Automatic annotation (TrEMBL):
Subcellular location: Cell membrane
Span of domain Major facilitator superfamily (MFS) profile: 13-510
Organism of this sequence: Limnovirga soli
Membrane topology, from the record: Multi-pass membrane protein
Entries under Gene3D superfamilies matching the protein: MFS general substrate transporter like domains (1.20.1250.20)
Keywords: Cell membrane, Membrane, Transmembrane, Transmembrane helix, Transport
Lineage of source species: Bacteria, Pseudomonadati, Bacteroidota, Chitinophagia, Chitinophagales
Ranges annotated as spanning the membrane: 50-73, 85-103, 109-129, 150-173, 193-212, 247-267, 287-306, 313-334, 415-438, 459-477, 483-502
GO CC terms in record: plasma membrane
Principal subcellular localisation of the protein: membrane
Protein name: MFS transporter
């Protein structure tokens, strides 16, 4: 039984760890949440699809370097302590995010813009590679064995809540720049997108203040006092056959599948709704916000359940459900927004054409806006932009087409429900995993050993999901669900390995 003082102490630990980790996830994911806007700012506008893919690739680069951050900061965490290491990661993350908000656009400094942004994304990835392992280890080493899944599940909520906060800040900023909605959106796309990056520095300063008041993990402090800390955490983690085996089991039997389920159920779901289903910017974000709001408590539900029945089967069940239902769930999203399933009110169709002169030429830019109305209340706006040349021998350019669908209330909540189901899968694979990883490795090399498989599985396999899935849809244009093959295959492979090699035993002797 825990005393009241011990209970209060663990909640202070969870609070201090969670606030900082949430802010780091906010900083990291705000880039992905603004991918379409950033694509127009830091890459040439001549090919919007290529610009979006380049932005997603830059976004993914932050994930690819996370394992290197896990090695660098994991080693520091096992050598000098948990507290100071993830204080350092917070400073690096906050500074990099703030700096992205200051980088001039492509129109101002050319290709230097995406190069600078890429460098800052790499710093973000390195910082996050050291953050999660430190926070999870710190909380777990304060937790009693019979409640380790419950207490560490609160840390697990921070990744999703960081995404939630980033979406909320974006929407608030987008609608507060001007009383006129159209002008407000234009200002946001032009310069207002920088505000969510810049204001994060305030949150980071508050979190640094909180973390400075934290004490070192009692288990690490004891090891240090007894002179039993690891001399070479990297060597002990990866050169010793027994520990390396556990690292590989953690990666291929748990975190790899967990990573693709996490990013498919949240990031790719939102990208799919916006870029494939063509649902309105605001609606695509608020759909995810509602789904996250309803789904987040399940992190704690499944973390708590894992204390009673073990971690393994909860995580593998989440992967299995994702594998067998993703095609149906994403297909329903697609069909819900498909105008082929709706009846147009042709009498209300509205077409407007505007011409604007192209500077220093006799050419004109023609914008054709077609607004279509449907009996179920959906409104679709199709904007075609092309160039009309003064020289009659030139062919009119192929129009750039942008489609925006404002869906009705019933379809909106249908999409919320579908994304909520996918987020429940996320909570199943992610809620118990911090306790699962902590229990696999000894205290003196825990930070290093657990961080690497987590960040390869979650960061590389998972973080690449939006990019690879979007890339597949641009290659195989006739199949809008083809992008799901990547997460399904990875999750299936992990399910098989996890079933065969992962133990369901809860380690009662972590705190030694």
């Amino acid at each position: 039984m825990q005393s009241n003082n011990e209970t209060k102490g663990i909640w202070k630990v969870i609070g201090a760890s969670s606030v900082g980790t949430l802010i780091e996830w906010y900083d990291f994911y705000i880039f992905g949440s603004l991918a379409t806007v950033i694509a127009s700012q830091f890459f040439p506008k001549t090919n919007p699809t290529a610009a979006l893919l380049s932005t997603l690739a830059t976004f993914a680069a932050g994930f690819i370097v996370r394992p290197f951050g896990a090695l660098v900061f994991g080693r520091l965490g096992d050598l000098i302590g948990r507290k100071h290491t993830f204080l350092l990661t917070l400073i690096i993350m906050g500074g990099s995010t703030f700096a992205i908000g200051l980088v001039p656009g492509y129109d101002s400094i050319g290709f230097a813009a995406p190069i600078i942004v890429l460098a800052l994304r790499l710093l973000q990835g390195l910082a996050l590679g050291g953050e999660y392992g430190g926070a999870a280890t710190y909380v777990a080493e304060h937790s009693p064995a019979h409640k380790r899944g419950y207490y560490t599940s609160w840390i697990q909520t921070t990744a999703t809540l960081g995404l939630f906060v980033s979406l909320g800040v974006i929407l608030i900023t987008r609608h507060s720049l001007d009383a006129d909605a159209v002008k407000s959106v234009a200002k946001f796309n032009e310069w207002g997108w920088r505000i969510p990056f810049l204001v994060s520095i305030i949150l980071v300063i508050v979190s640094i203040y909180i973390r400075l008041k934290m004490n070192e993990s009692p288990l690490f402090a004891k090891l240090k006092a007894e002179g039993k800390t690891s001399v070479n955490p990297l060597k002990e983690s990866f050169a010793h056959k027994g520990n390396l085996k556990m690292v590989l089991i953690a990666l291929f039997g748990a975190t790899m599948g967990q990573g693709v389920v996490w990013y498919t159920g949240q990031f790719y779901a939102q990208s799919f709704i916006e870029n494939v289903c063509k649902v309105d910017f605001d609606q695509s974000r608020t759909i995810l916000i509602w789904a996250i709001l309803f789904g987040t408590p399940f992190f704690v539900v499944f973390g708590t359940l894992s204390d009673k029945i073990g971690r393994k089967w909860i995580m593998l069940a989440g992967m299995l459900l994702a594998i067998v239902s993703y095609n149906t769930l994403f297909g329903t999203l697609l069909n819900t927004a498909d105008v082929k399933n709706k009846t147009e009110i042709t009498a209300q169709k509205n077409i407007s054409i505007t011409l604007s002169a192209v500077t220093n030429t006799g050419d004109s830019l023609r914008k054709t806006v077609t607004k279509s109305f449907y009996t179920d209340g959906m409104v679709m706006t199709e904007t075609k932009t092309d160039t009309v040349y003064a020289d009659a021998t030139k062919t009119i350019s192929k129009p750039a087409v942008k489609i925006n669908k404002l869906i009705n209330s019933s379809d909106y909540w249908t999409m919320v429900w579908i994304v909520f189901i996918m987020i429940v899968y996320v909570t199943m694979v992610y809620g118990p995993i911090a306790a699962f990883l902590v229990e696999m490795f000894p205290t003196k090399i825990r930070y290093t050993s657990m961080s690497l498989p987590y960040h390869i599985g979650n960061g590389v396999f998972g973080g690449l999901t939006p990019f690879i899935a979007t890339l597949l849809t641009t290659i195989y244009t006739d199949n809008k669900l083809v992008g799901l093959q990547y997460p399904i295959i990875i999750a299936a492979l992990c399910l098989v390995i996890g079933t065969l090699y992962v133990s369901n035993k809860i380690d009662e002797n972590v705190n030694d």
